[in-house]
Design goal:
This protein is an alpha+beta fold and 195 residues long. 37% of the residues lie in helices and 13% in strands. It has five helices and four strands; from the N terminus they run βαββααβαα. Strands 2-3-1-4 form a four-stranded antiparallel β-sheet, sandwiched between helices.
Length: 195
């Protein structure tokens, strides 16, 4: 059976802004947010993402909670996302090319330096929709205990069968090129935005 059949890759990430979401200091992030969500929805291998509590549109996958790294920050909420992907290569292609790569390039202007992993990955059965609490638990786990088949990153990836795997970099490049063909308008737009 091909890798990933019957399984989806879950991804949770968490960061802290340098100032309030509505502030001028993170305006560049705010301006890019909708384009990033749209780029993800057009990306090869994207299955779905959670919305946010109290926001119209995309349903929220359970109660939105945050990892302990938010404590002492002065914030009640923080930038985070929870999504499902077909495989590691599809997520990597989206993350490190195009619209999202532009946001990553400028993230140091909007986010504090992290002492925790920026994201965590894990496999779920295709019938499962992860909740925010699942991502939080796994991010704290990878921070405390290191990567495993239950909580890993791009640096030490695991496959749906629980074994360590190598990311197919050529496939990542192919998917990134495929995505670029359908996201040129979004990339052109974000390149005009303030940092």
């Amino acid at each position: 059976m091909p890798a990933g059949v019957g399984k989806h890759l879950a991804m949770y990430n968490f960061g802290l802004h340098v100032a309030a979401y509505e502030s001028a200091a993170v305006e560049g992030f705010r301006l890019r947010e909708a384009a990033n969500f749209e780029a993800a929805s057009r990306a090869h291998g994207f299955i779905g993402r959670s919305g946010y509590t109290g926001e119209p549109g995309t349903p929220c996958w359970g109660e939105q909670v945050f990892p302990r790294f938010i404590e002492g920050s002065g914030f009640a909420t923080a930038p985070s996302s929870l999504s499902l992907w077909a495989d590691i290569e599809s997520l990597m292609a989206f993350s490190y090319s195009g619209v999202h790569a532009d946001a990553l390039k400028h993230a140091r202007h909007w986010n504090v330096r992290q002492s925790w992993p920026p994201l965590v990955l894990w496999w779920v059965d295709a019938s499962v929709v992860p909740e925010w609490k699942d991502g939080v638990e796994r991010l704290e786990y990878i921070h405390d205990k290191g990567p495993s088949a239950d909580a890993f990153s791009f640096k030490r990836p695991y496959g749906p069968d629980g074994g360590a795997v190598e990311i197919d970099r050529n496939r990542v490049k192919e998917i990134a090129a495929l995505n670029a063909g359908g996201q040129g308008d979004l990339l052109a737009h974000v390149m005009t935005l303030k940092i």
